Amino acid sequence: MSLILCIETTSTNCSVALATENGAFQNNYGILNCLDVLEDNSDGYSHGERLHLYIEEILSRNNFSTKDLNAIAVSEGPGSYTGLRIGVASVKGLCYALDIPMIAISTLESLSKQNTSSGITVPMLDARRMEVYAAVFEDEEIVQEVSAVVLEKESFSRFRESGKLTFIGTGIEKFRELIQEEQHTYITSNPTATTLCDLALEKHKKSDIVDVAYFEPFYLKEFKAG
Predict the structure, then answer these.
(1) Dist. CA 44–CA 11, nearest whole Å
(2) Alpha carbon distance 84, 33 (integer Å)
(3) Is the alpha carbon torsion for 148, 216, 89, 23 positive or negative?
(4) Strand pairing of 131-138 and 120-126?
(5) pTM of the model
(6) How far apart are CA 109 and CA 112, in angstroms?
(7) Which uninterrupted H or E stretch holds 175?
(8) Please, are residues 141 and 113 in contact by the beta-carbon 8 Å criterion?
(9) b or e along 15-33 (b: 16 or more beta carbons within 10 Å of the residue's beta carbon)?
(10) CA distances from 155 to 90, 175, 176 (A)
(11) pLDDT tens for residues 61-98?
């Protein structure tokens, strides 16, 4: 039975989880192949201080060590530039040291898994001002690729015309105010390692892994110091 450490650091939420078959972890996202999760949903970024402490704690409280891990999965972005660097660098170091595979998972695909209803889901991460990182999924299949979107009243109009959508993430409130369409479902939420678990196990079974030496986070946009 596989044991995969999942790490999510693309937003203010520093989150780690353990994925294993039949983990039967139940929360608002349904029953997942997740054994345990540990996270900090505070407003500030504390990933550098908390991430390795969280990894040690989640393994210890489930009576595991790093030697029990079969792989490590990381949320690859888009998201916070600093958060992505911390998460990916930490996973690379652990995978090198333990000689185990590294799995990369789309942050927006993972975020879309927080919606358990059928239909069209638009995961959306705030990218400051009126810009977001977004994609569109229909019944778990991607129908519009990840991109940086400057929000306008016409954004995602062809999907909105089809009926009720679910918008989920950290960038939805400004879009909700812009379009003023209350027939949709709006869920303000950070990405979490919990929803990485099923995706990580699927990729591990297919040996869908990345090269630890050459992998880079999916920044989507170049970093600009503010």
Answers:
(1) 9
(2) 24
(3) positive
(4) antiparallel
(5) 0.92
(6) 5
(7) helix 172-179
(8) no
(9) bbbbbbeebebeeebeebb
(10) 36, 9, 11
(11) 999 999 999 999 999 999 999 999 999 999 999 999 99
**What's the pLDDT tens digit per position in 165-217?**
999 999 999 999 999 999 999 999 999 999 999 999 999 999 999 999 999 99
Residue 8 has pLDDT above 90, yes or no: yes
Cβ contact 103:73 at 8 Å: yes
The answer to whether residue 107 scores a pLDDT higher than 80 is yes
Taking residue 98's Cβ as centre, other Cβ atoms within 10 Å add up to: 16
Interatomic CA distance for residues 171 and 161, integer angstroms: 21
Residues in the chain: 226
H or E element at residue 94: helix 81-98
29/123 Cα distance (integer angstroms): 14
- 3-class SS of residue 170: coil
Structure tokens at 17: 């989880």
The string of DSSP letters for 65-91 reads -GGG-SEEEEE--SS-HHHHHHHHHHH
In whole angstroms, what is the distance from residue 4 CA to residue 209 CA?
A: 13
Residue with tokens 């869908």: 208
- Token pair listed for 37: 């999760």
Whole-angstrom distance, CA of residue 220 vs CA of residue 147: 7
